[in-house]
Every structure is written in C-alpha cells, then in structure tokens.
Design brief:
The chain contains 23 helices and 23 strands. It is α/β, with parallel strands linked by helices.
Amino acid sequence: MPHTGAEILINGLIELKVEYVFGYPGGAVLPIYDALFNSKLKHILTRHEQGAAHAADGYARTTGKVGVVIATSGPGATNLVTGLANAYMDSVPLVAITGQVQAGLIGKDSFQEADVMGITMPVTKHNYLVKNTNDIRRVLEEAFYIASTGRKGPVLIDITKDALMNLATDNSLNIEIDLPGYRVKTEGHPRQIHLARKLIKESQRPLIYAGGGSQDAALVLRQLAERYEIPVTTTLMGLGVMPSKHPLNLSMLGMHGTPWANNAVQNCDLLIAIGARFDDRVTGDVNKFAPKAKIMHIDIDAAEIGKNVPVDLPIVGDAKAILSELLDSDNLTHKAWLEEIYNFQYHDRKTNIPLQEICKNCSYEGRKNAILPCQKESTLSPQKVLEHVGGVLEDELIVVTDVGQNQMWAAQYLNVNKPHSFITSGGLGTMGYGLPAAIGAQIGRRQERVVLVTGDGSLQMNIQEMATLAGYNLPVKIILLNNGVLGMVRQWQTIFYEGRYSQTCIGSIPDFCLLAKAYAIPSLRVATENDLEPMTQALLADGPYLIEVAIDPDESVWPMVAPGASLCEMFYAQRAITPAWKR
C-alpha cells in the first residue's frame, strides 16, 4: 500500500524503536507533523530549534539511544547547527531531520531555503539530501546505523517537501545496509593486546586516563582498575566512569583538575588513555605532559591516535571489548605507587593548599564590594551549596551543567557514581546547553533526579525552554549560581588581563524568581545558612524548581593550570605556586 514520504519516515522511526522526538514545526515539515498527529511517537515541543537539538543530545547521553530532532527548512535548520556541532565534538548519536524546499526550487533563493548540507557538513558524521520518496526509508536506516556505531555522532537528513508529500511503497522489509566506505573496527589487534598486557605487568606506576569514550566500558574499566590496582583519573566527559568516592578514583585532571590527579599524570610510568582525545584543557603543554610515561591509547577512532600526543602503543577498537581482553586472571599490586598518591592527597597539603580549603575560605573578604544587592547578604559559597545538593540527593543524582564556573564547580563538588550521569558540553563549551539538555535527560531517565547547575549568563541563552520544562512538568531542579557577571571570562580577565573587566558585567536583571513565576515554576532564593533547610525541601519537591544562589562575582574556580602551562604549574587563589611535587 502506498504511503506518503512523511508516513514512511514516521513508520520507520517507530520500527527503529524511537520513543521520543524533539522538535519545532514549520512549513517544510508540515507533512511530517501531520503524519505525527495519530502516531505512537511522543513529540517534545521545545521553544527553539537549538533547544530541541540540545534536548535530543541530553536524551541520547543519558539513555544510550539515538536522539532525534526535527526542524523546518532555512532558519529552523540553521538553528540546529550549534547543537549538531556540540554533539559532533562530544560523540553523541543524533539524527537530525530537516525539511527542505521542493526539489525544483532548490538553488533559486526560495522562501526559507538554505544549503543545509553544505552548512552542516563540517559538524556531522554524514549528511543526506533526499529528493526521492523511495530513498527515505533506506536513508533513515543508514543514518541510525552511522550515528550509533563506531565513534558515535550526529547525522543529518534534509528532505525536500515534495519527497515528503509524494506517494511510494514502504519497502522497509527489504532494506540491507551496505556501506562499503564505512567499516567499524571493534576488536583490538591481538599483537597490540599482547603488548598491552606486557606493559601493564611491567609497570610500577600505571595510571588510567578515562575520557568520554570510556562511559560504555565503565564496568570492565572498574574491574581492570581493581584487579591491577591502577588509579584512575578522568576527563570532564569521563566523570561517572568510576564512582566519585572509589579509593582508586583521583577525580578530574587538567586545567581545573585535582592536584593529586595532575601529580599522578606527571609521575606515572604508564599512562593508559581510554576513549580520550588529549584535549588542550587536559594536557596543558603537550611537551611536558606525562614526561616519564609510556603512553597506551585505546580508541574506536584511529584518527585520534597520535593526533595531539605521541603514543607508544595504539590500540584501535571498542574500549569495552579491548579492556575485557586485557583482564588476566592474575591480580597485580602497586602498593608503593598508591601510597605515594594517597600520601600526597591526604598529607602533603601543608605545602600544597588543599582544593577544598582554597575554595571555601578565599572568597568572602571583599563582600562589601559585591555589585548586586542580593549578593551583599550572601554568606554561602557555591561549593558549599553544591555539597549540600549532593548530600540531599546522594546516589540518585544525574548532573547536567552549563558552561563556565558552574560547570567546573559541579565537576569538583558533586559526586557522580554512575556512567552517563554527568551531562555537559565538553568539547564545544556551549553556553545555553544546560536547560534543554536537562529536559532531555529527565525524559530519558524519568525515575531519577536531574539537577541542572547553571549560571545567570548561560541560563539566559536558552531561557525560553523554561516553558518546555513547565509544560511537561518535568521535575528538574535548577541550581542557578547568580553572580551578575560572566564568571569564567571575568576570572580570566582578573588573572591574565590585570582586572580590566570589559563587557563581563551583566547586572542584576532579570529577577529570576519573578521570571520563574511567569513560567509557573516555583523558586527559592538562597543566600545564608538559614536557607539550606528550605533548599532541601525544594530539592525534594515534585515538579520543576528554580533555586537561585547569590554568589560573589569575585568567586573563582581553583586550582587552575594556565593555558599552555605544564600540569606542574597550578594557580591557587590567584597566585602561582610551584607545588612540592613538581619534578
């Protein structure tokens, strides 16, 4: 029986076991939305296409499924670009379906026409322009395959309006995926596996460096670390791979990592990188990164091997499969190495100012200079507030962040104990990502508590999605750290630009609690210890809640490694200190 192209598309999504799609309608995709009307698919209507892309991204990260986003032609499609670039940088499986003007109108500057293929080619794994109704089902199947296999990422399907409206026979039962140019290698080379086992057994000071590509391999990674007594440090994208309080977990490394993680990197003799790309925020000066170590790099993407840092032993393949092969029956012990790390972490803080004491004690001397009225009465640090959040919600927590100081404080002070539970824009650093991503995360994991940590700058970039949050009554708790400035940019202006605060004060407008009320979302303003008990009740309440925390604009994220510096050279409280552990 013939179906329209739009019906074939919707039926195909259902056959691919898609439950939710995120999107925003428009003229070129009206056939899709008409086909959606009586379908089993659940559509989440955001208030902006960028919000839809980020929501699909958050859904994909928390569920492991392919996120699906729909947008119309022209401005609708171009509004997806930031979301696609974000997913591309962080290897998130998305399929974006966009409408296009009729095939005969392409290239004629038609109303709401844009070359979406050309625009999105650099920020997608693959993209398609579909002009023939008969191609829709095959292309959809291929797009899902490409998005979800190998190194995951976004795929875009641009479909002309006439292809969506024309009739064709749905040939879904006869589809075979045949992509000769796309071969996914999952198993590691046997010789490389053998050499890896040898290196691990010979190493006296091994260290695992886990990136976002290790999330699906979290269980076997933990087994490997425990069996061989190998400490683990993670990137921002790797948080959750090891439970935060696990004795082998050194937490995050790099620019705002822990001193003991950076110390371990600089002194290990074997660095086992898993699903990581040696980002500049992690390595600092690559010429001084892990100077004593042989480097083993396990990654599904061969293009990442040796891209930023020379590698002694590359292993291309799926991290879970490779780590399973590295598990021997014999246990190993690295008692002396672990004792050195633990002694540094727990006892050598007299010469290296401890992370917690720095952040809690260095911020409130200049309270009279706070620029916002509500902040002059504040006696709480963001670190203490986040620790309180973690204490209330404990292991149930899924953390979503925006970008900037709020992101780093969340990474430092909230415990993440499960994989796929710290959701953030890592590679692209997209302000405005947090709120829509939290919506997608909560839809993906309905029974768990989702907390969004954001700033007053980031929240305003996609604040219209408060309407989406309220409209679907999603119980996301928004922790808004409000300092009236673009905090991380201001911090850099303090350190590197002699305090010349050019265009980083965004002031005390709007009143976020009044704004939340306009969106029918309850709110609470937190400034003192007396507000922590009401905050507890807000965190445990049903439905969405906005909790605004007034913080000092001079509050900064410490410790810090300056861009291009070595991990040995960390800033503590706006002064450079050469730590005792520098070698």
